[in-house]
Design goal:
Blueprint lengths: L1 H12 L6 E2 L3 H6 L5 H6 L2 E5 H8 L6 H9 L5 E5 L5 E4 L4 E4 L14 H14 L4 H7 L2 H6 L12 H9 L8 E3 L1
Parallel strand pairs: 1-2, 2-3
Antiparallel strand pairs: 3-4, 4-5, 5-6
Length: 178
């Protein structure tokens, strides 16, 4: 926990730093209150649906409520993934649902899919993309990663990712949820 307090202090001393936070099991065990300073400093926060319930200590199933509940912890953008069902984002104004990018074949394994999603979303934001664009980019890398064994095999370059987006089905677009 001491490291996390030092990290929070560093973030407070350097407000120009942008933070993408995807807590692991280790951080989730501390509880949301212990990490409240890091949640508040998060520009973008990632977790899957089950993790959101664990973080919130809630049995809530409604994704809209989970997005809002995580948002009250402080992140500017909340992204909750739901495996092959798709992903959701909330920036305090707009909630979006994004379907998965179609798999060309059944997945070999899902190791690294969540990390591929969150890193691609974060990279898109760092490149100046909007949340709507970032959530469109994010599912492409997991689609490719699950076609390989391991967490890194299958990661795409920006050019490869953009080619997949050009070939995306017409219904591959974020949808506003209300």
């Amino acid at each position: 926990m001491e490291f996390h307090y030092e990290f929070e202090k560093y973030l407070n001393d350097h407000p120009e730093i942008k933070l993408a936070f995807q807590p692991g099991t280790f951080q989730m065990k501390f509880g949301k209150d212990a990490l409240k300073g890091i949640y508040k400093k998060s520009d973008v926060f990632f977790c899957n649906k089950e993790e959101s319930q664990r973080i919130l200590n809630s049995e809530e199933n409604d994704i809209k409520n989970l997005l809002k509940m995580i948002s009250t912890l402080g992140p500017k953008i909340v992204v909750i993934t739901d495996g092959p069902k798709g992903a959701y984002s909330y920036d305090g104004k707009e909630m979006l649902f994004m379907p998965p990018y179609p798999d060309p074949a059944p997945p070999l394994e899902r190791t690294g899919a969540g990390d591929a999603f969150s890193s691609t979303f974060t990279a898109a934001l760092a490149l100046g993309k909007t949340v709507r664009e970032a959530i469109t980019w994010a599912p492409v890398n997991p689609m490719s990663v699950v076609q390989q064994i391991g967490a890194r095999a299958g990661l795409l370059t920006r050019g490869e990712l953009e080619e997949y987006l050009k070939k995306a089905p017409t219904d591959y677009e974020p949808r506003v949820i209300e």
